[in-house]
Amino acid sequence: MQCLLFKIGFLQVDVWDLFDILIVGLLLYQLYQLLKGSIALNIFVGMVLLFLSYQVFQALGMDLLSSILFQFTNLGFISLIIIFQPEVRRFLLLLGTNTLRQRDSFWSRLLGKEDPTLDATEEVEEIRRAFLRLARSKTGALIVCTRDADPETIISGGTPLNANISYGLIVSIFHKESPLHDGAVVIENRRISRASAILPVSENTTLPKSVGLRHRAAVGVSEKIDVGCFIVSEETGKISFAHGGHLERGLGEKRLTELLNAYL
Ligand SMILES: Nc1ncnc2c1ncn2[C@@H]1O[C@H](COP(=O)(O)OP(=O)(O)OP(=O)(O)O)[C@@H](O)[C@H]1O
């Protein structure tokens, strides 16, 4: 079905061409957002240049060169999937969980159900109080919250707890004398599943130089799975939050409560 919009010389542009360009542009933008700051972006740019050169050489009729580049770009697609395996995994995971969340909230709204993020108030209050206390005393802390991501393959080690969320427990875990204070506390479906866990550290080069291992670990795990990470800096007492590979620093009390409600 052709719906001609306009002509530029011999080029006929129809509605589907516009959709085509729009979708490709959107996908490239999402890909750029995903790879921004990682070394994978340089590899991706290299592959795009290779593909564009192939197109140019082919258009110029330089058969030998374009057939060599054709083999490279063909192989390139498979090697891209291998090289970008963590990014592809992250992209699909984020896509899947966001779609599921949107679908759930659509049905909840339609059936007049309460927003599930509002049920968490009691636990949110416990964590909020604990974080404010830890921030006041400049005690370093790192908490990973997840509802439906499976952290087993990404988060390693730690001591299993399977405990209720409570102000006292969180403050005690991160107390400097506690044997569990090193590493991260993991909260799965509103229960503390383990403490002292080790997270993958982000290699994002755009993070500020002042960001140390605790913050990098929070960003690192949020790059790989759908989690919200809350951090208290031992150095400054500031509270930060990492999600989807992005770090939001210096949270106020209101913003902290908002994010806890959304991610617990
Ligand atoms: N991979 C990791 N997984 C979990 N926790 C980690 C990891 N790496 C470091 N940490 C925690 O971070 C602490 C070190 O923090 P570091 O001072 O390097 O980070 P920072 O981001 O500068 O934080 P702060 O502002 O609190 O100093 C370690 O003692 C440990 O508890």
From TrEMBL:
<comment type="function">
    <text>Catalyzes the condensation of 2 ATP molecules into cyclic di-AMP (c-di-AMP), a second messenger used to regulate differing processes in different bacteria.</text>
</comment>
<dbReference type="InterPro" id="IPR036888">
    <property type="entry name" value="DNA_integrity_DisA_N_sf"/>
</dbReference>
<keyword id="KW-0472">Membrane</keyword>
<dbReference type="Pfam" id="PF02457">
    <property type="entry name" value="DAC"/>
</dbReference>
<dbReference type="GO" id="GO:0106408">
    <property type="term" value="F:diadenylate cyclase activity"/>
</dbReference>
<feature type="transmembrane region" description="Helical">
    <location>
        <begin position="64"/>
        <end position="84"/>
    </location>
</feature>
<dbReference type="InterPro" id="IPR050338">
    <property type="entry name" value="DisA"/>
</dbReference>
<dbReference type="GO" id="GO:0005524">
    <property type="term" value="F:ATP binding"/>
</dbReference>
<dbReference type="InterPro" id="IPR003390">
    <property type="entry name" value="DNA_integrity_scan_DisA_N"/>
</dbReference>
<feature type="domain" description="DAC">
    <location>
        <begin position="85"/>
        <end position="253"/>
    </location>
</feature>
<feature type="transmembrane region" description="Helical">
    <location>
        <begin position="15"/>
        <end position="32"/>
    </location>
</feature>
<keyword id="KW-1133">Transmembrane helix</keyword>
<dbReference type="GO" id="GO:0006171">
    <property type="term" value="P:cAMP biosynthetic process"/>
</dbReference>
<comment type="similarity">
    <text>Belongs to the adenylate cyclase family. DacA/CdaA subfamily.</text>
</comment>
<protein>
    <recommendedName>
        <fullName>Diadenylate cyclase</fullName>
        <ecNumber>2.7.7.85</ecNumber>
    </recommendedName>
</protein>
<dbReference type="Pfam" id="PF19293">
    <property type="entry name" value="CdaA_N"/>
</dbReference>
<dbReference type="InterPro" id="IPR034701">
    <property type="entry name" value="CdaA"/>
</dbReference>
<keyword id="KW-1003">Cell membrane</keyword>
<dbReference type="InterPro" id="IPR045585">
    <property type="entry name" value="CdaA_N"/>
</dbReference>
<keyword id="KW-0547">Nucleotide-binding</keyword>
<keyword id="KW-0808">Transferase</keyword>
<comment type="subunit">
    <text>Probably a homodimer.</text>
</comment>
<keyword id="KW-0812">Transmembrane</keyword>
<dbReference type="GO" id="GO:0004016">
    <property type="term" value="F:adenylate cyclase activity"/>
</dbReference>
<feature type="transmembrane region" description="Helical">
    <location>
        <begin position="39"/>
        <end position="58"/>
    </location>
</feature>
<keyword id="KW-0548">Nucleotidyltransferase</keyword>
<keyword id="KW-0067">ATP-binding</keyword>
<dbReference type="InterPro" id="IPR014046">
    <property type="entry name" value="C-di-AMP_synthase"/>
</dbReference>
